[in-house]
Design goal:
Low-confidence stretches: 352-358
Radius of gyration: 20 Å
Family: Belongs to the Glu/Leu/Phe/Val dehydrogenases family.
Helix content: 40-55%
InterPro entries: Aminoacid_DH-like_N_sf, Glu/Leu/Phe/Val/Trp_DH, Glu/Leu/Phe/Val/Trp_DH_C, Glu/Leu/Phe/Val/Trp_DH_dimer, Glu/Phe/Leu/Val/Trp_DH_bac/arc, NAD(P)-bd_dom_sf
Shape: globular
CATH class of the largest domain: Alpha Beta
Protein name: Leucine dehydrogenase
GO molecular function, one term: nucleotide binding
CATH superfamily of the largest domain: NAD(P)-binding Rossmann-like Domain
Number of helices: 13
Largest sheet: 6 strands, parallel
Organism: Pseudonocardia ammonioxydans
Number of strands: 11
Mean pLDDT: 94
Structural class: alpha/beta
CATH topology of the largest domain: Rossmann fold
Distance between the termini: 37 Å
């Protein structure tokens, strides 16, 4: 199939006729080190959509790794499933994982993957028996365990710095709207509640909302009200694409910082937020804690204290991005892109990789 132009290095597209699954690997950059990024498994409208998603996410991973100071490049895997995961039997799923491992091996270490939407640490355990090019295994299999706590910690650091940038005096008393109460969103909600925030939550799963209301005293709203409910801090922790230029023009909040990838449909949305005076923490910086945890612990051999310190430093990175955006009258996304470009231009930096072999 003919592929559109892209500024990345490699796109691999393969099909498994036995399962009907398509496998796309996008390697955006290996400038700082081997490309790294999770494997997303879901149903797509077509192969072209899967390719576009893999490429977009791979580019975001390049920026994320650069912003996090990790000696890795950006990549992403997308598995376009023939049916929702819940409808696939175990034999089909394992066949899909085996084929994915074979595709990873064909790249010879230029790309390493971990869990993402639709895949889990348990799936990484299976892949690790078939390829060395995987991270994010379960603790039982020798991996670092869930990245959710560190992702949430980094997001909350972004919230705190964003609140300060907006001229607000801490999280206490602020209306914090958390969209998506999966492992990361629920942890962010707990951190916000602990800091005295007035929680507003929503999720497609009513049971998660009930749990947040019972545990944290959160107010529950309908999922369709996320972009119309007034709040001080909007924390998107579900899927991406929430804010377009049109919705950015009306969203009633002061700060936006969340765990969702590719939160904005395009850079024009960031410019709309800038003109409205809304402080936006670019998602690839705010949610970098997960990558820091998985890559740091399993690939680079960092201990828990170093991973925690580097995750907290997400706030420092964002403070510099906010300052640059102010100084040059540009959006925070543009400022973050400038910072990532400088890191990429400087090239690889010496970084401890103790424990990289397993």
């Amino acid at each position: 199939m003919a592929l559109p132009e892209w500024d990345g290095e490699l796109t691999s597209v393969r099909h498994d006729p036995d399962t009907g699954a398509w496998f796309v690997i996008g390697v955006h950059s290996t400038r700082l080190g081997p490309a790294s990024g999770g494997t997303r498994a879901m149903v797509y409208d077509g192969v072209a959509d899967a390719v576009a998603d893999a490429r977009r996410l791979a580019g975001a991973m390049t920026s994320k790794m650069a912003a996090a100071g990790l000696p890795m490049g950006g990549g992403k895997s997308v598995i376009a499933l023939p049916a929702p995961r819940a409808e696939l039997d175990d034999a089909t799923w394992h066949r899909i994982l085996h084929r994915h491992a074979a595709n990873l091996n064909l790249l010879g270490g230029n790309y390493t993957t971990g869990p993402d939407v639709g895949t889990s640490a348990a799936d990484m355990d299976v892949l690790a028996t078939l390829t060395p090019h995987v991270f994010g295994r379960s603790a039982a299999a020798g991996g670092p365990g869930s990245s959710a706590p560190m992702t949430a910690l980094g997001v909350f650091a972004a919230i705190e710095v964003g609140v300060a940038e907006a001229g607000l005096d801490g999280v206490e008393g602020l209306r914090v709207l958390v969209q998506g109460l999966g492992a990361v969103g629920a942890d962010v909600a707990r951190l916000a509640a602990r800091a005295g925030g007035k929680l507003i939550v929503t999720d497609v799963d009513p049971a998660r909302c009930t749990a947040a209301a019972d545990e944290l005293g959160a107010e529950v709203i309908d999922t369709g009200d996320v972009l119309s409910r007034a709040c001080d801090v909007l924390v998107p922790c579900a899927t991406g694409g929430l804010l377009s230029p049109a919705t950015a023009a009306t969203v009633p909040c002061t700060v936006i910082a969340g765990a969702a990838n590719n939160l904005l449909t395009d850079d024009a949305a960031a410019e709309v937020l800038r003109r409205r005076g809304i402080t936006y923490a670019p998602d690839f910086v705010a949610n970098a804690g997960g990558a820091i945890h998985l890559v740091g612990r399993e690939v680079l051999g960092w201990d828990a204290a170093e991973v925690t310190a580097r995750t907290r430093a997400v706030g420092d990175t964002l403070a510099g991005i906010f300052a640059d955006a102010r100084a040059h009258d540009i959006s925070t996304v543009a400022a973050a892109g400038r910072a990532a470009a400088r890191t990429l231009a400087d090239g690889p930096r010496p970084t401890s990789t103790a424990g990289a072999q397993r």
